Known about the structure:
Blueprint: H1 2-6, E1 12-13, E2 32-33, H2 41-59, H3 79-85, H4 105-108, H5 113-123, H6 128-131, H7 139-148, H8 152-178, H9 183-193, H10 210-214, H11 223-226, H12 235-245, H13 249-255, H14 266-269, H15 274-277, H16 290-298, H17 306-312, H18 326-333, H19 340-345, H20 348-357, H21 362-442, E3 451-455, E4 461-465, H22 466-472
Antiparallel strand pairs: 1-2, 1-4, 3-4
Helix pairs in contact: 2-21, 8-21, 9-16
The chain binds a DNA duplex through helix 8 and helix 21.
Amino acid sequence: MCSAINGVLPLRLSCEGLANPGRLHGEVSTNVTGFRAQRSPQHLDMDLAWQELMAITELQEFEVPNENPFEAIPYLSMEPMVSQGGFGMSQPQPESIPATCDAHPAAVYENAYPDMMPPYQRLNPHMDMHYSLPVPGGHGSSRMLTSTQAFHPPLMSLLEHMNMTTRSHGFAKDGVINLHCTGQIKQACTDDLESDSGLSLGSSPPLASPENVVHGVPSYLPADVMMGYAESESIGEQCRMRQSLLGSVDYHQSYSSFPGTSFPTTANMQPVNQQTYQPIASVKQPVLPTALHDLQLNSSGLTRLGSYQSMYQKPKSSSVSVPLSRDERRALALKIPFALDKIVNLPVDDFNELLTQFTLNDAQLALVRDIRRRGKNKVAAQNCRKRKLENIVHLENELGQLQAQREHLTRERLEFQQNLAVIKCRLSDLYTQVFSQLRDEEGHPFSVDEYLLQLTNDGNVYLVPRNTALEGE
DNA sequence: ATAATATGTCATAGA
DNA sequence: GATCTATGACATATT
């Protein structure tokens, strides 16, 4: 490399242009030491050309490399381009420098693009606005994400609307179906259909399994209880009924076989706080579900269905009857003395307090806890699915933005490559002019193919014979 | 009849 | 340890 210095031509290029970033077209005062001092029209052209050349060198980020004054390290960033384009100034190139601009710029400089981005920003200040766009992994990306989060409120309302729509639709459909079944037949059909193959209930005690209530009659429960919702009564009558049931030998013996279980009495079945827990006897006769209504009409002596059902009745805006859910029917069957929404929604302390208000048997207690668990999990599942949808929508939105950004960057890259190709063509022309002038005015048979530009520590550029430079490498 | 979708439920993990 | 919440997986209902 040092031998290259010895063989350096008397062409010394002062890189003043480097101190004037962005001044590509004109006012850069550039000296070409070793050239003529006079300014012929040709020289003026040459000056202009050199100004452009200096801008090119600035574009390529000529920097003082290290203590080795002629190392080509500053050019390394151009290496991909050099290797393909043949515009090398520091690396030995077997190809000759093209004198014309016939090469397709985009294809030639494709690989050089990433390294060229920062100089391009300075070269064309107008491009700053383009490249200030959020870059993946950069700060701009987070800013973009933040902007997309503004999407959420309308999405939430949309999803709420979707949930309400589908829900009400499903209930209406059930109501229509119920019209075709009557009484216990319908209920038996429904419960058979709901025989809960999906219910492992392995975590629940056997007593808790409501299917035991409907399908298999546990020995500890009275027969009338097992008839379930078919004979729901008010609390008072229920207790009176149960007082009478206490005389039932079968029930009492079987029920007393469960230690710690006390059958509800009139006293302990009454809610302590009737305002809080809504005295059931005071509830008006509700609009019964069709099956229950048929049952009420068809079952002689079983005409008081309203009280329990009223607790489990879903609020509805129209006269369309809403069928009871499975848990509601189970609760009705086991005469759970409070509303399901309380079971599900009360805080745990209030829920436990509510349980203390009543003396529930094991089956009732297990059912109540299952209802609470399932109810909470149902809400959790709904929330989970809603969040999933929101995430999907959010990601789709983000994807759209990223695709738009990518298209924008692609356009910018193409534009940059075109500009760069023009500049490199001008540089090539400039080389040709320089060597042509050297031949004409100094009689030196220089050929553009025979020399390389090399940069010194002080920012000067030297033309070094290619073979000498090769020796120095 | 069948696929797609919605919903409920269970099991499980983590807070 | 009990409770709650989130979530995957599965079953069933609905479209």
